[in-house]
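Fold sample X.
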Amino acid sequence: MDITRINKHRHLGVILTSDLSCDDHLSLIIKRTNLKLSNLYRNKYLSRRTLDTIYKMNIRSCIDYCCQVWGPSLNETQISKIDKVQYRAAKIVSGAMYRTSSSALRNELGWESTKDRINYLSIIHFNKIQSNRTRPLIRTCLPPRNENPLDLRVNRMYKPFPEEKNRVFSNSFFPKMAKLWDDLPHECKGGSTNEEVEENLANHFKPLKNKLYSYGSKLGNKLQTQLRLGRSQLNSHLYDVGLSLTKKCACGSPIEDTYHMIFNCPNYAKNRTDLFDGLENCLVKKIKFYSKNQLMKILLFGENTDDNERFPFNKIIFRKFQTFLLKSKRLVYNQL
């Protein structure tokens, strides 16, 4: 009986090729996620918290599926294709404007980069294998261990594979994760239980998420987010990306930026008075003891956000600042 030789096979949802390339599977992921992005865009009027959940459940889950198998072998060009999908989703979820910094967007939402996400999921799985929480057969694929991993001359738990001169093999799961594990800080790998180790790894790879940034009405939250990211309808922000011919404010000031709008522009004098009168009982100190730059930072990012007891007061600060932005009507052009 003749057996037909094929160069591509789909197994459990992952496309495997004879040359071990991930291009075909990556193309499938990009196609799926782009279709789901259109659904996310159609629901962009939902709250930021809801959109964040939809993205993680319906879009990021497609990227995460079996990424331990194909993810470590991706090159920078392939990773950038997934990054573009994530960037489009981040703009929809946050309401960010054109040409907002991708790294600033990830920090705003508390999302890790594609590379960090793959490394995090892969190293978690690698830790399960080496800590005997998987079937014995897969543990035979681990690289050989150093006899004395604490030797300062070696300082590595695993020896390199003899086959690592092969580029395809060296970029596969076990060689790459063994090297990543050895390169991690000791505090990430320490812990009396597996749960503690995984928590340490999560803290290392995942950025902190500020739940305060999701507070407020849909439009008010979006306007505040745009100012926090430095890309809004203000002329200085538009000028930086070539969408305005001037940085001037309508009041005649040479620069219309966030600082000018909050503190100096005469067009919003009444709204400004209402804003700062309402902040008097929400701040740690009397408002007269803050500099204007400190006040602007508090309005955009909150005050002492690491202190949970300050959370209710920061919610009031955000609500009053968003009210100021909505009443000014300066940033609402073409927002929804």
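Fold sample Y, listed below.
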Amino acid sequence: MTAHTDRRKCALNAHSGGAAMRGADVTEARRALGALWGKRRALTAAELGRALGYAGVAPGRAVRAAETGEAALSPQAARLVALYLRGVLPPDGIP
């Protein structure tokens, strides 16, 4: 089993996609998605924010707030993350 597969499984196990998501789960999802999407690094908060449909000047703000415990990603955003971890691609392509 590769490190990429291990990270993705860990992120999937950490979050079922049905509830709000925060903290280490978001950080691990960024790492796993970066590997899954061929980035060879974790996604930036802004890249994940754009993949989740956050627009405007700071698409990564909600992601960073979830990682620091200031807020949680919405249940809808958490479901999208879970789908992405299962191999579904963002509708606008990989950021």
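Sample Y note: Residues 3-85 form one domain.
Also: The radius of gyration is 12 Å.
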